[in-house]
Amino acid sequence: MKPGAIVAVLLSVIGMAAVVMAFQTNASKYVSVKEAKASPGGSQHLSGLIVQGTMESSSAKRYLKFVLIDEDGETIPVVMHKLPPANLSAAPKVVAVGGVKNGEFVATDIITKCPSKYESEKK
Questions:
Q1: Over its length of 123 residues, how does the chain's per-residue pLDDT go in tens digits?
Q2: Residue 80 host element (H or E)
Q3: Phi, then psi, of 24 in degrees rounded to 5
Q4: What is the pTM of this model?
Q5: What is the CATH number of the domain that holds 39?
Q6: How many domains does the chain have?
């Protein structure tokens, strides 16, 4: 085999290994409130509903706080120190990305879920 071909194969293998490692490092799993509390820190996706009347936010301070309830009925305060998504008030379901710290889920991002967007129109 020619040295150039060997180098090309080696670089391809190294490149694919780097992509796999990057994916595994940045991937996070969906957890329940109970699971999030059991393994604080890290990168987790926490899905649930915002408990009505618990949302506080300040655009000036780049602050958002609310209580999230998961499908098991467990609750946890969620805090994020950046601007909230524009459609947060219209979204019944959210996914908080982050981890538990001092009893709160500290989110680095909030993803809104709006199921009505995907439902067909009723006739």
A1: 788 888 888 888 888 877 776 665 555 678 999 999 998 877 899 999 999 999 998 888 889 999 999 999 999 999 999 988 888 878 879 999 999 999 999 999 999 876 555 455 554
A2: strand 75-80
A3: -65, -35
A4: 0.71
A5: 2.40.50.140
A6: 1
